[in-house]
Each structure stands twice: as C-alpha cells, then as structure tokens.
Amino acid sequence: MNRRKFLGNVFAAVAGSAIVGSIADFSRVPIAKARSLRASFGAKDVREVPIELTDAPELAPVGGTYHLEYDDLDRNILVAHVAPGKYVGVDIKCTHRACDVTYSPDEKNFYCPCHGSKFDLYGRVLTGPATLPLTYYHAEQKGSEVMVTVFGADDKVPANSVPPPMDTTH
After folding, report:
1. How far apart are CA 84 and CA 62, in angstroms?
2. Within 10 Å of residue 46's Cβ, how many Cβ atoms?
3. Checking CA distances to 8, which of 25, 31, 52, 114 falls within 20 to 30 Å?
4. pLDDT digit string (tens) for 73-122?
C-alpha cells in the first residue's frame, strides 16, 4: 500500500468514527458501576461491580457466562452461572499461554481450548499444562444483579474471594 492510500484510509477511519460517535446513542449501552468495598475489605482497589441480568441475558440461565471487563483495575473476568443462584468468576486468560478460558456447564469447570488445561470453579488447576491457578472472584446474586468482587493485582485478596479448601459445589 502506498503512502497516499494509507493516509486516505486513516483519514476515512477517523472521519467515520467521528460521524458514528456524533449520531450514536451511547446512553443505552450498559456501564458497570463500581461501588467501593474499602470499608469491608480494607483494600485500596476493591470494588463490587454489578452485572444487571436484564442487560446480560446470556448469564441468566444456569450454564450461562458473561465476560466482565473492568478497565480501572485491568481485569477481564469470566463470570459463570454454575447452579441455581450460584455464580463464580475467574480471570479469563489461561495462566499457561493467555488463551481465553471457557466454562463447561456439563463438567462444571473452566477449560482452555488452546492447550487443554482445566480449572475447577475456583480457578485451581485440575489438569495442565497450566501450573498456576486462575484468579477467583466472588460473585453473588443480589436481586436482579450479580455482584462481582473485583480487586487490584497488588491488593490483598478479599476474604470472600479466597477459594475454599476443597471444591464443595459438586
């Protein structure tokens, strides 16, 4: 591609973005609002992030999942509806090679489709090649919302996001 064509494509992309941005109604796009949990957990960057089930219908049925992106703390979390009224969240990136993990409702675990690693509902490694667990995030239904406890990488893990000694969900 020559320089003139490249610059023309860049200009067209910028102009198109400006036009779409000026006419699009972004007021309808759901935004996760963070509520501070500093008093409860004593961590500087702990948040309780709501997912409104009417805005995320894919999470409503048992076996459903939702990809929660929380940019303020650089978190990408896969939230899964694992049983009636029970939700869990884990880092979406596999600790082996950073592929996106998925949730298997039949096996009630998270797995990496790239290399086959499997993780329990709390992110602990069941089978490799991954050797490190996924970070676990507490998720709890409160009314029509699923509240996910999100914390910073350098923060002490909140008590509700410490996995239990053994998987008690099966």
Report:
1. 6
2. 25
3. 25
4. 888 999 999 999 999 999 999 998 889 999 999 999 999 999 999 999 99
Give the number of other CB atoms < 10 A from CB of residue 139. 27
Q: Tokens 């049983």, residue? A: 83
8 A C-beta contact, residue 55 and residue 39: no
CA distance 79 to 102: 10
- Three-state secondary structure of 110-148: EECCCCCCEECCCCCEEECCCCCCCCEEEEEEECCEEEE
Least confident range from 5-14, 69-78, 146-155: namely 5-14
Instruction: Name the class of domain 30-161.
Output: mainly beta
Domain boundaries, the chain: 30-161
The residue written with tokens 């996995």 in the block is 163
Task: Tell me which H or E stretch contains 109.
Answer: strand 109-111
Rounded CA-CA distance 61/63 in Å is 6
Predicted TM-score (pTM) of this structure: 0.71
Tokens read off for 127: 């089978």
